[in-house]
Amino acid sequence: MGFIDDAKETAETAGRKMKDAFDDAADRTGDKVDEAKADANLKKAESEKDSVEKRNEIKEDLRDN
Q: Quick one: where's region Disordered (predicted)?
């Protein structure tokens, strides 16, 4: 029965390693998605900031004239 026990243990170890590899890949994918969302939010915020600055600049020019 030693051979069967060894085979069972090897199969369980391989299964754990495959699960760990899958979990790692899923985590990496999630991290990339989070990074892309953060980049998009940053670009949106920068665009809004530029818009507000330009609007304030125009208002200031109108006040001066």
A: 37-65
Counting every residue written for the chain, the total comes to 65
Name the CA dihedral angle for 31, 34, 38, 44, rounded to a multiple of 10 degrees: 140
One-letter-per-residue 3-state SS of 1-65: CHHHHHHHHHHHHHHHHHHHHHHHHHHHHHHHHHHHHHHHHHHHHHHHHHHHHHHHHHHHHHHHC
* Matching residue, tokens 């029965």: 1
